[in-house]
Amino acid sequence: MKAVMYTNRRADRILQFTSDFPDVDWAVVWSPEEFENGVADADLVVLSNRICTPELGAALARGRTDRLRWVHFSSAGIERGVNMGLPRDIPVTTSARAKAPVCAEHAMMLLLASSRRIWEIRENQQRHYWARNELNFTMRSIEGQTLVLVGLGGIGAEVARKAKSFDMRVVAVTRGAAPTPDVDDTVPRRRMCEAFADADAVIVATASDPSSFRLIGSDAFAAMKETAYFINIARGEIVGESALISALRAGQIAGAALDVAEDEPLDPKSPLWDMENVIITPHVSAAGSTNDYFRLRALFAENLNRFRAGRPLDNLYHFDDGRALPATN
Fold first, then answer.
1. Which of 4, 5, 111, 275 is the most exposed place for a label (fewest CB within 10 A)?
2. Is residue 158 a contact partner of residue 107, using CB atoms and an 8 Å limit?
C-alpha cells in the first residue's frame, strides 16, 4: 500500500506516521508539483486542511488515478479541502476528536477569562492599581449558568463535559447528534435563537460547511442577553463578523472571545482589536497538547485496520451535510 503525505512544515508531527506505520510505503512531498507526481500511483493521501489550496486541488485532479482509494486528513476541519475539490467518489476521513480536549480547554479558558474580566484585571495590573472594589461588581461566576453550545461533535461534546465540571447547565444546538450525559437539552438549528435567548454564554464549536456559513448573524445576537458572552473556536465564516461588531458596539452582548476570524489573519484595522470587552487569540485553540499526536495515531491506526478489512471507516466525511461521523460498527 502506497501513501503520499503532503505537508509544508518540516517539524510536522504527522511525519512520525512514516516510522510508526512502517508497513505502509510512504512518500513525503513538499509542493503541489511533487504531490501531483506522487499521487499517480498512491492508494492513500494524507494531508491537512491548512495546506489545501485551489492549486493543490488542481494537482490532485490532474495526478490521481483509479488506484487512489482513500483520503485522510490529519485535521478535524476540512472545509479548505472541500473547497479545493476533494474527490467525492472515494472515502474521505478526518481527525475529528483527536484535538477535542485541548480545543475544549481553550474554549473554557476564554469563557472564564471573559466572565472573570481578565482584560480588566490585566489593565489594572499594568496600572499597578488594586481594583478590588470595582471588580467585585463586574466579575461573575459561571456556576449554575446556561451555556449554549453550537455543535455537538467531538469538540462540542468535550466542551460540554468540561462545562459540567463547573456546574453549568448545557444546551446544545445540533443537526441531530445524540444527547450525551453532559448535555441537559438539545435543540435543532431552527430553534437556535430561542436557545440563545436563555444563554449566559454561547460557544461555537460546529464544523464549517455550506449549511453553517454565516449561521450566526444579527438575529442571533439580538436574541442574546446583554449579559451574555459569545465565544468562537470553530471557524470565522460561521459568524457574520459585521453583525458581531454591531452587537458589541450596541451593547447587545457583554463581550466576545474569538480564536478565529472571517478572514485570517484578522485585519490590523478591524475594530475588534481595540474593543475592551473582546479577547482575541490567533487560531491556537488546538496548540500545545502533548497528547494529540497519540490520538491522531490511534485514530489513523483504527482506520487503517478498517480500510484493509473492508469495514466502514471512522470519521467518514459526508459531503451531503458536511459532517464526519463515527463508524457504526
1. 275
2. no
Asked if 115 and 229 touch (Cβ cutoff 8 Å), the reply is yes
Q: Is residue 287 one of the residues assigned to a domain? A: no
How far is 166 from 180, CA to CA, in rounded Å?
17
Could you report the per-residue pLDDT of 103-140, keeping only the tens digit for each? Answer: 999 999 999 999 999 999 999 999 999 999 999 999 99
Q: Is residue 142 part of a domain?
A: yes
Cα–Cα distance list, 77 to 121, 126, 297 (Å): 34, 38, 17
**Strands 185-188 and 70-73: what pairing?**
unpaired
Catalytic residue among 235, 237, 262, 306: 235
pLDDT-derived band of residue 289, with 50, 70 and 90 as boundaries?
Answer: confident
Task: Confirm if 66 and 38 have CB atoms less than 8 A apart.
Answer: no
Sign of CA dihedral 37, 43, 45, 46: negative
The residue range of the domain holding 143 is 100-280
Q: What is the pTM of this model?
A: 0.90
Q: Which residues contact 102 (CB under 8 A, 6 or more apart)?
A: 285, 286, 287, 288, 289, 292
Shared domain for 51 and 93, answered yes or no, is yes
How many Å is the Cα radius of gyration of the chain?
21
Q: Which three cell numbers stand for residue 156?
A: 462540542
Residue pair 53/84 in contact (Cβ under 8 Å)? The answer is yes
146-150 and 92-93 strand pairing: unpaired
Q: Which of 9, 264, 308, 318 is catalytic?
A: 264
- Say if residue 6 is exposed, middle or buried (CB neighbours under 10 Å; 0-12, 13-18, 19+): buried
Residue 190 is a catalytic residue: no
pLDDT in tens, 1-27: 999 999 988 889 999 999 999 999 999
Say whether 72 is catalytic.
no
Based on the residue annotation, tell me whether 55 is a catalytic residue of this protein.
no
Q: Coil, strand or helix: which one is 89? A: coil
Q: Is residue 286 part of a domain?
A: no
- Contact present, 205 and 159 (Cβ < 8 Å): yes
